[in-house]
Amino acid sequence: MISIGGRAIGVDQPPFVVAELSGNHNGSLERALAIVDAVAASGAHALKLQTYRPDTLTIDCDGPAFRVGDGHELWGGETLYQLFERAHTPWEWHEPIFERAREHGLIAFSSPFDPTAVEFLEGLGVPAYKIASSEIVDLPLIRLAAATGKPLIISTGMAEMREIQAALGAAREAGCTELAVLSCTASYPASPSESNLRSLPRLEALTGAVIGLSDHTPGIGVPLAAVALGARLIEKHVTLSRAEGGVDAAFSLEPAELAALVVESERAWQSLGGVGIGPRPSEQEGLRFRRSLYVVRDVRAGDEVSSENVRSIRPAGGLPPDAAREVIGRRFTCDVPAGTPLSWDLV
């Protein structure tokens, strides 16, 4: 169990739904604030930003190592600097975005990408930090964020188990006691077939952390399946409209879809219930309407029991339907009106 902004996250709580703004503001603070409003209206619990400048992530270089592969579905051919320049959220926007989120009762935090971002976000009083998948190998950054004493959420896209354990070890050594680990496929968009959600229980067992999912697949099917396998936190990118485009729009949810995720993920969590087979409390009334053997025609003492005067019908109350094999051919011991549940003393 961990707590972020006063909200408990764990096995006994509904899934914690985080909406990732990322670059879907399309360079407009007005659009960013409209996304915050839409996230709040959806019922999501938190809003997350990414805090970096192009120069804190890379350098303005056009060499092959600094260029996204031509075959990439969304960003093919762009240099890293160009991509991050287009996608980053200006630091001067953070305060008004966070303020708008708080006005709506949303928990607002961010992913820092270098020490200056941690320092900046500390000044804004964020309640938690998220480590992005590519930064899981940046142990100094993880130690710095962990040393704040705030909860840490770590995405594990591309990571091997030894890298995950190293990141968690660095966080714990730096004093972090509230950790969440998110399964993630760090491709954009991601294929559901690569989600490997069956690994979630194993990830929980191996890390001892709260587990969740950072998802880049289309729609909400994958996160709902993740909830069934133990995910306590779900993170999805969100946009006002995929049709309007944007750096992350293709794998982002629109507001109505985000609202559906909030509702359906809680339903999925509720449906897990406990371990047990048998009638549920709400089924007690239904038990009265199981089939049983009833006398369906008025009969006189001495009449033969037959399929014409005794049948398996609803409601319950009579002998079980399988008892028909034993009573057919016997005789009634007394007069019996139609609508009487059959019992052994009547034959």
Give the topology, please.
Layout: E1 2-4, E2 7-9, E3 16-20, H1 29-42, E4 46-51, H2 54-57, H3 80-87, H4 91-103, E5 107-112, H5 115-123, E6 129-131, H6 139-146, E7 152-155, H7 161-173, E8 179-184, H8 200-207, E9 210-215, H9 221-228, E10 233-237, H10 255-272, H11 284-287, E11 292-295, E12 310-313, H12 324-327, E13 340-341
Parallel strand pairs: 3-4, 3-10, 4-5, 6-7, 7-8, 8-9, 9-10
Antiparallel strand pairs: 1-2, 11-12, 11-13
Helix pairs in contact: 1-4, 1-10, 6-7, 9-10
Organism: Nonomuraea helvata
GO molecular function: transferase activity
EC number: 2.5.1.97
The portion of residues forming beta strands comes to 15-25%
**What are the segments in which pLDDT stays under 50 over at least 5 consecutive residues?**
none
Distance between the termini: 62 Å
Largest sheet, order of strands side by side?
5-4-3-10-9-8-7-6
Task: Outline the biggest β-sheet.
Answer: 8 strands, parallel
Tally of DSSP β-strands: 13
Report the total helices: 12
Principal-axes shape call: elongated
The oligomeric state is single chain
